[in-house]
Amino acid sequence: MFYFYQQLPPVGDLLDARAKGSVTLLDRNDTVFAWRGETFGGQITADTVSPFLLHAVIATEDKRFYRHFGVSPRGIASAISINLAAGRGPLEGNGGSTITQQVAKLLCLGVPYDPKQWKTEADYEADCRGGGVKRKLKEIPYSIAMEAKYTKAEILTIYFNRAYLGAGARGFEAAAQRYFGTSANDLTPAQAAMLAGLLKAPSRYAPTNSLKRAQDRADVIIDLMAEQGYLTAEQAADAHANPAQLSDAAQTKSGGFFADWVMETAPDFLTSTTTEDVIMRTTLDQKLQRDAEEALAWVFDNKVAKGSKAQAAIVVMSADGAVRAMVGGRKTENAGAFNRATQALRQTGSSFKPFVYAAALDLGWSPADFVEDTPLTMSIPGSGKWTPDNYDHKFEGLITLTQALKESRNIPAVRVSEAVGRESVRAIAAGFGIQSDLAAGPALALGASESTLIEMTGAYAGILNGGSAVTPYGLMELKLKGEEESLMGAGGGIGERVISENAAKLLTYMMAQVIDSGTGGRARLDGRPAAGKTGTTSAARDAWFIGFTADYVAGVWIGYDDNTPLKGVTGAGLPAEIWHEVMSRVEDGMPVKELPMIIPEPRLRPNPGNASNQPVDPNAQFNDPNAQFNQAPAEPSVPLMNPSDDQVEALLKDILNSGN
Questions:
Q1: What is the average per-residue pLDDT within 100-115?
Q2: Which of 30, 79, 82, 427 has the smallest count of CB within 10 Å of its CB?
Q3: At what angle do helices 501-517 and 353-362 cross, to 10 degrees?
């Protein structure tokens, strides 16, 4: 005992048991929404904690705490009797440990953590909690030495700060903050009883795992407190009638996928392997996060067959790339789960087409220009002839670019892509943040390339903000707990301009028609302007809808993890409906704002004056399947319309009369 007495350090050196630090994540309003690692809420003492907590712990763990000298012979004898009656060894199972003995175990009988000896802290602590005669013989004199060295209040202080209480909470202050959003100094009887109940089995009784089980365990503690005179009958009845409830952050598990993603955007030594306590301020909006989660659940509950294994992902962001909500999948709440919003590379289908038209508009084309929707066959070097088709297997003839996009027609998209040059389309897509390898052939225009949902949503944010690239980001600031100086700032935002502002506004007009009168009708928001694009890949393995209002951009993806084709699902269906449900909730109560768009001047419809009076193909210069299409037209309306001399003369007169 004298040896251990000499080795025991000051109490202040024993309060934080962790070898690693923690990360606390705050939303855009500086409210905690998630934690990573083991949190330590700060030092508390037996003199300052809620008296209900102090009494709950004593009533539960060691009712003779103030009357023994570190060990309880009566308790040990009772535990041995119980173990033998249960057919166990005398020291197996019930240990009859006092609070002082439990603190001795928490201190590992003075043996420090050595990463060379134990692989993890969990292995170290499991070894410390091990039983056996040898360990018990050491534990008894160590406990008596503690009683001689420290006061009863100091022993309780060590216990209150070091005890593990589930969900990564180390100490009662961290647990009170994590589960209830309050301090351990301010706990009610019901809250104190629930926390004291965790000491028996932290993971099993953690209220985040089963609130009902935690409340039932708390009822037992409340009765013990009443029996031992720590609660009046009225207080006990009130605690039973009003059980402890989780805080909003603990209850909703809000932003799990988002938290994982943000953690990955900072260096490991400041996140997953940090030895300090870190605070991360993020862009998450918890209201929007709930909106996205509830919208997805509602659609699958009401529109999808029960038991469907189809997966879905949602991203909501501001026009500058600040991610406000993220759903990385269905029925996968655990941290570290595969995030389909950020990790899944999927073919984009027709949701890629806006980048084709963005390239054309940036070269001076107009949404009112005409393009031919007629059968097309091209010769692909090394692959032979390629004949794209429209989704409905029909052809509309001469149509405007706006009609081509809003009806998601494939042939016009290929013609425009070939006319402006695939390299131009690739440059636009890459400029907007599509980082994956883009298809080399003409199928580029039809979304044959793969991308992630967060990349695509960020690219559409570039259209909303007037044509500038954005880097999607979730981190706003990172600093050490208690420090004022930031170690990291925002991890993204608006970058370089990709297309002109006029081109972006004209493209927004075209995409608004997709929702107003095109394939995106199911996404339409009552009384609120919106723009977007549907997307369905070959064999319907992926279905997309990405769109925006003047306030937010949202992207939705649906598919199977194993690439099984979707049955009866296109981007115009479930994804558009999910988008509608998400944005209806997101925009609820917000003032209506107009989209930043330009309505184009109408163009004359071609009326060629040829002898046969047959329609002239406005794209005759690239109807030859062997032709090379890598030059953008100097004057977009000319190659698209191929007008007669009379039309050119009339057009010139109109230009002169307009004063331009």
A1: 85
A2: 30
A3: 140
The answer to whether 421 touches 630, Cβ cutoff 8 Å, is yes
pLDDT of residue 641: 43
Q: Contact at 8 Å (CB) between 296 and 330?
A: yes
CB 555 within 8 A of CB 457: yes
Q: Cβ contacts of residue 154 below 8 Å, gap of 6+?
A: 11, 46
In this prediction, residue 639 has a pLDDT band, given cuts at 50, 70 and 90, of very low
* Predicted confidence (pLDDT) at residue 138 exceeds the cutoff of 50: yes
Q: Which stretch of DSSP H or E encloses residue 182?
A: none
Task: Specify burial of residue 321 (Cβ count, 10 A radius: 0-12, 13-18, 19+).
Answer: buried
Q: How many CB atoms lie within 10 A of CB 563?
A: 12
Instruction: Count CB-CB contacts under 10 A for residue 521.
Output: 15
The conformation of residue 623, written as its DSSP 8-state character, comes to T
- Cα–Cα distances (Å) from 237 to 190, 231, 389, 617, in that order, read 10, 10, 73, 86
pLDDT tops 80 at residue 100:
yes
What is the C-alpha separation between 278 and 25, in angstroms, rounded? 9
Please list the helix, strand and coil fractions of the chain in percent, rounded to the nearest 5, in that order. Answer: 45, 15, 45
Average pLDDT over residues 332-340: 68
> What is the DSSP-derived secondary structure letter of residue 659?
T
Beta bridge partners of 557: 313, 544
What residues contact 520, with CB distance under 8 A and at least 6 apart? 514, 532, 533, 534, 545, 547, 572, 576
- Answer whether residue 620 shows pLDDT above 60: no
Q: What is the arithmetic mean of pLDDT over 509-538?
A: 94
SS3 of residue 384 by DSSP: strand
For the chain, count helices (H), then strands (E). 24, 19
Which whole-number Å values give the CA distances from 53 to 60, 131, 196, 580, 621, in the listed order? Answer: 11, 28, 7, 48, 83
Query: For 238, what's the count of Cα atoms within 13 Å in the CB-facing half-sphere?
Result: 8
Tell me what the pLDDT averaged over the chain comes to: 86
With residue 317 as reference, give the H or E element that holds it.
strand 311-317
**Residue type for position 181:** G
Euclidean distance between CA atoms 497 and 479, whole angstroms: 31
Q: What is the pLDDT at residue 86?
A: 67
Q: What confidence score (pLDDT) does residue 636 get?
A: 42
Identify which has the larger pLDDT, 368 or 108: 368
Alpha helices in 540-642 (DSSP H): 574-586, 637-641
Q: Which amino acid is at 151?
A: T
Rounded CA separation 601/512 (Å): 16
Tell me: pLDDT of 607 over 50: yes
Residue type present at position 276: E
Cβ burial of 253 (10 Å; 0-12, 13-18, 19+) is middle
Give the residue with greater pLDDT, 456 vs 633: 456
3 state SS for 144-171:
HHHHHHCCHHHHHHHHHHHCECCCCEEC
Structure tokens at 445: 């225009």
Max mean pLDDT range (167-171, 218-222, 645-649):
218-222
Residue 88 confidence class, pLDDT cut points 50, 70, 90: low
pTM value? 0.74
